[in-house]
Amino acid sequence: LLIFSIKIISQEPSTLKLFIILSWFPIFTTFSYGQNSIFFLFILASAIKCLRQGYLFQSGLLTGVLALKPQLLPAFLIAWACAGKKGITGILGIIISISSLVLVSYLFMPESSQAYLSIVKSELFQIEKVSGFSYAKQHTLMSFFHLLFGDLVAAKIFCFVLMLFAIYFTRSIFIKYKNNEHLIFSFGALLLPCVSPYLMIYDLCLLIIPALVIWDEFKFSKIFSKKIYSFIWIVIPLNVTLLIPLQSRFLPWSIHFAELGLLVTFALIVNKMLTEDCLSIQSKT
Question: Does position 282 have pLDDT exceeding 60, yes or no?
């Protein structure tokens, strides 16, 4: 599924890209922990293919499959909404997809479906109350500010403000690049650390989408791209294994360097895309 996803997303798939992606820590943890993130990567890759061929509704239907892992859905739903009128078709597809999943689940697995909804309702937006939950292992705005301030109220306020900024700049990107709908999935993935209530390290494998799209279709300086990618590749594994444990031993607060790196990456990409015409000739045609 990973190989197929890369071939679908990338305009220029190669063995080198595959090996680089396999070396990324979130990919390793996906396989190591037996998680299903690669499946959702493949679903989104298929949705990108539909979108590139002009099938917005079908792309929305595939996006709706993320309801199986609801913490991933808000970012892509927001990205579709930021796409303007064209996004309405996709959102309609998402709604129908989710409704169909709910209907089929209740018809064939009523007890399991009810238990699933109960867990989502009680835990997803109060995840900090779940036994064994750790902000240090999360890659969200809430985890960043909670580790920094140690105060949940202050963390929620800062989180909400930055979330609004992220959504505003995403909308600005879509206004400028209005004929490039597949950016929905690139910025949906980039929004994950900004708007998701719960995001583990293996979920970050969805960032492969913007990494490949930006590398292939935008005329960023390759040096600029390599610096961003190298920083993210290094800081994510070091954050949980070394940086946060080291800080917590000597300080009453911690800086979540992985989340900080993701936020800085989002800001740099947005700034580059808004201040320059970054689309390659190939993408424009």
Answer: no
